[in-house]
Design goal:
Chain lengths: 113, 113
């Protein structure tokens, strides 16, 4: 059974702080790693799809890195704002026949103004 | 991308009753999925809704408990039957355009008393 683990489970930061959190996944049979942001009462929103070892992707103040050999990805938020408050989820496709996404529990981020 | 709506957005139901959740997409899609997130748990795939054939259920989920309809390429319903408090969850529908690139509805928050 594949396991996707995220840490920390929750995080409280002050506006302007930079922060990061981790997604760990099985390093064998790597296909892709997905990051989503899920704000309360809204749809989960895709942030990044990462496929190559050493990949780094950026969207505004949010960036992500990928290490497929050791099985982890970091998500960084620079200068956190209250609107960044959300749960950040990572997902890893099962290597099985339908590549079903296996989801982590998420990191819940609260940014205090 | 896709715009996905779900109805109802939330409901409080009595034990033993059933609730049907609707999912509408603004474009024709082949793959539609139903997920749930129970409190403190990760997003879990319930089933894949196939147009013109029966849904494909994941391990631990059965048609009698979660009947699904997919009458056309833009619409699907999920029924949560004979509900118990353990069915209290957020239920999400999603669509997939490219492999594992999923777009989600805003979710239905169900509380079963």
């Amino acid at each position: 059974i594949l396991n996707v683990e995220q840490s920390p489970q929750s995080l409280h930061v002050q506006e302007g702080d930079s922060t990061n959190f981790t997604c760990s996944f099985p390093s064998s049979n790597f296909y892709a790693l997905h990051w989503y942001r899920w704000e309360t009462a809204k749809s989960p929103e895709a942030l990044f799809v990462m496929t190559l070892n050493g990949d780094e992707k950026k969207k505004g103040r949010i960036s992500a890195t990928l290490n497929t050999k050791e099985g982890y990805s970091y998500l960084y938020i620079k200068g956190s704002q209250p609107e960044d408050s959300a749960t950040y989820l990572c997902a890893f496709p099962n290597a099985g026949n339908n590549r079903k996404l296996i989801w982590g529990l998420g990191t819940s981020l609260a940014v205090n103004p | 991308s896709a715009v996905i709506s779900q109805k109802p957005s939330r409901d409080i139901c009595q034990r033993g009753t059933s609730l049907t959740i609707q999912c509408q997409v603004d474009s024709q899609v082949t793959m539609m999925f139903w997920y749930r997130q129970q409190p403190g748990q990760s997003l879990t795939l319930i089933a894949t809704a196939n147009q013109g054939s029966e849904a494909t259920y994941e391990s631990g989920f059965v048609i009698d408990k979660f009947p699904i309809s997919r009458p056309n390429l833009t619409f699907s319903t999920l029924t949560v039957s004979n509900m118990s408090p353990e069915d209290s969850s957020i239920y999400l529908c999603s669509v997939e355009f490219n492999i594992n690139e999923q777009f989600f509805g805003p979710g239905t928050r169900l509380t079963v008393l």
